[in-house]
Amino acid sequence: MCADRAAGVTLGIVAGEASGDALAAALIRGVRARRGDVRFAGIAGPRMEAEGCEVWAPMERLAVRGFVEVLAHLPGLFALRRRVARRFIAEGVPVFVGVDAPDFNLGLERRLKRHGVRTVHFVSPSVWAWRSERLRDIDRAVDRMLALFPFEVPLYEEAGIPVTFVGHPLAADAAGPGTRRAVRDVLQYKGAAPLFALLPGSRLSEIEMHARLVLDAAARIADARPDARFVVPVVSRTTRDAFVDAQHRSGHQGLALTILYGHAGDALRAADVALVASGTATLEAALARCPHIIFYRVNSLTAAIVRRRLIVPWVGLPNVLAGRFVVPEFLQAEANPANLARAALNLFDDTVTRRRLENLFGDFGRRLAADTGAVAGDAVIAELDAAAGRRQGRDRPARRAA
Q1: Is residue 228 classed exposed, middle or buried when 0-12, 13-18 and 19+ CB atoms within 10 A define those classes?
Q2: Is residue 100 a contact partner of residue 20, using CB atoms and an 8 Å limit?
Q3: Same structural domain for residues 63 and 190?
Q4: 353 vs 88: CA distance, rounded Å
Q5: 225 and 314 share a domain?
Q6: In the predicted structure, residue 131 carries a pLDDT above the cut 70
């Protein structure tokens, strides 16, 4: 830990992927704007580290998806969770914040809560979509839930779990009606040729599953529209190398394709249509006012387990927010190059539908707008104050009888 630890208090934090890294960084800024003596340490990504979080382990250790896929990693994940739990307890952290990664963080939170640590979970698991029985586990593990979406709040209130709606930080940068032209100027993209964004996912496992799929779809789009251009944002050198390797192995080096390191938001704001792997990126596409197609593939056994337990008929966040299918979804076998290319071309040609989607997506931005880092920071500080009050109560000597 830092040499000047005695000057303040250290809180524990764990995030598991790029979206969690961004959320955690905003929360850290929100807390430190109010309490400059508070520091953070735990499992973190580069954005968290840039905000001063001490990294005990890189967040890539948690970036494993699915049920079946995670099995080979379970011994290492369990060992990591035990190790960081012991360290948090030994360091005497008064509050722990688990950012998303519920399969890892809820178990960690449950153990820390038993040891008197106040626990905050940032990003509700998808209990509104499937595994609603998880609310019981959350109640045992979490002192306060920080929810990104307004429809999540009643679920926790009904379960008796303290909850705070913090909005979604992506809404702060939601695109306006004239954003596409402005971003294209920044990216120096000239002309009226159609621009398609390809987002195969932020995790290496997603790139390995989806890169060939989106490249094959892009080739079909290019066959139908030889003037089409493509942009692919990647989050790390590792995922960039994996995508480039897939491009070479699939023989698609001739595509008019530009790879961007980061800048997913710019790619979506500039694109006419996007192909987006299900996840936070679909919300990012909506808030960029980018008409898009949602797709996803996982191990077939994982897919069968999820399918049996789904409560709602859609998986994409734009459809969840709309309460109906507004964005096409292609999952598993339906996520094939022919379907994705046909849907993307149809959407590009249908300007009426694209404008309607852009207007709907603009409404999403207004509904989700909040100073997320500040609201989340206030909630964490309240838990820190509660932890301090509880500790003072324990330390106060018993009043002697007169």
Answers
A1: buried
A2: yes
A3: no
A4: 51
A5: yes
A6: no
